[in-house]
């Protein structure tokens, strides 16, 4: 796998994980009883973006490591999926 391809796959994994991590721990200003004048009551009270970006990077590294192990080390590809997935129709 070339470096640019690996970076592109990691970026796609990272971006997907970011959207799953963003809602973690979100409390609205109304729930926190700290509504700032001129803002929407449903806006987040504290976004904790630094923590969420670090968590996203850690999870994306783990997912990419599994992807790398399965595709590069073990040699599995898309054509191998019918052999890997168990058949439940029998």
Cα(first) to Cα(last) distance is: 37 Å
General shape:
elongated
What is the helix/strand order?
A: HHH
Determine the fraction of residues in helical runs and give it as a percent range.
40-55%
Please indicate the count of domains. 1
- Work out the number of β strands: 0
In round numbers, the mean pLDDT is: 88
Beta-strand level of the residues, as a percent range? under 5%
Layout of SSEs?
Layout: H1 3-21, H2 49-73, H3 81-84
Helix pairs in contact: 1-2
Describe this structure in words.
The structure is a single chain. Helix 1 (3-21) packs across helix 2 (49-73). The protein has three helices and no strands. Helices cover 53% and strands 0% of the residues. It has one domain. The model has no long low-confidence stretch (mean pLDDT 88). With 90 residues, it is mostly helical.
Supply database-style keywords.
single chain, 90 residues, mainly alpha, 3 helices, 0% strand, elongated
Short description:
By secondary structure, this protein is mostly helical. The chain has helices at residues 3-21, 49-73, 81-84.
């Amino acid at each position: 796998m070339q470096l640019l391809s690996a970076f592109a796959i990691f970026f796609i994994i990272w971006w997907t994980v970011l959207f799953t991590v963003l809602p973690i721990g979100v409390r609205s200003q109304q729930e926190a009883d700290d509504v700032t004048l001129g803002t929407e009551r449903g806006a987040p009270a504290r976004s904790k973006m630094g923590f969420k970006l670090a968590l996203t990077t850690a999870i994306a590294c783990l997912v990419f490591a599994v992807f790398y192990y399965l595709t590069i080390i073990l040699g599995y590809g898309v054509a191998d999926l019918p052999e890997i997935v168990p058949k439940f129709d029998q």
